[in-house]
Amino acid sequence: MESENQSHVSEFFLLGLSDKTELQPFLFGLFLSIYLVTFTGNLLIILVTISAPHLHTPMYFFLANLSFSDICFTSTTIPKMLVNLYTQDKTITYESCLTQMYFFILFAELDIFLLSIMAYDRFVAICHPLHYMIIMNPRLCSLLVLASWIMGVLDSLLRDLLVLQLSFCTELEIPHFFCEVNQVIQLACSGTLLNTIEMYIATGLMGIIPLIGIFFSYSQIVSSTLRISSTSGKYKVFSTCGSHLLVVSLFYGTGLGVYLSSAATQTSRANAIASVMYTVVTPMLNPFIYSLRNKDIKGAMRNLFGIVNFNE
What we know:
Helix content is 77%, strand content 3%. It has helices spanning 2-7, 24-51, 58-75, 78-87, 94-127, 132-135, 138-164, 181-186, 193-226, 231-262, 268-291, 295-311; strands at residues 11-14, 91-93, 173-174. It has a three-stranded mixed β-sheet. Helix 2 runs parallel beside helix 11 (268-291) and helix 7 (138-164) packs antiparallel against helix 9 (193-226).
């Protein structure tokens, strides 16, 4: 009977951020602008890190991977949202929903892993500067990124396979602008115990443990910074780590806030609006946060545009 119920599920309905028809053109223009800025800004970060030899360091290698992940992260949700806003059609097929869930979880977790790796990179650079190039060698950097991809792919696959086992009945409305896995699970008629257990285990392994690693790295950084006597030295440490700390605070603060509150409240539409911060706004802000006060990136951008203009 469960397989029969599941076989009749052909599509879900994404309710989006608002039911008001007059707001749809405004939301379409707003999120189209945000997506273009996000795509362009992160693409520029990737191009400058590739084109500038002096940026071929572990820190910028991880930053370029984070920018790539952010482009993919937003591309899993915003294009479909824009199509729904433009056509006034809120449907998404069952297969597309599963695909969206898979890639959303993958790139969200990849962001988390990369942020924790970048914190470790800063810890080694500040606390063990003499051994930095030995520890953060190209082989280790590549292995850390590869391990992040493997863990993200495996967990995303596991969650999708668990959702495939669920049966859905008549209520197929998702009060969100994308197929958020927790919202989809809540629509199931069959038992969701395995999904719930996996969700809490994944939250601990993929979310809390990397956050603990970030806290540990920065506790050691703060301890080392306090031993620096010169004000200029402390300022240099702050300028190096400030951007990363801001991005971590935005991503984790909004992401964990939404997921922890969703377990205790039924205001799903409010959670969807709050999710905009970590799914849409944070990836857009990352290029600005990392480049505005970074002389190396700003110089590389000027050189890149100078070459482009010269060739034209």
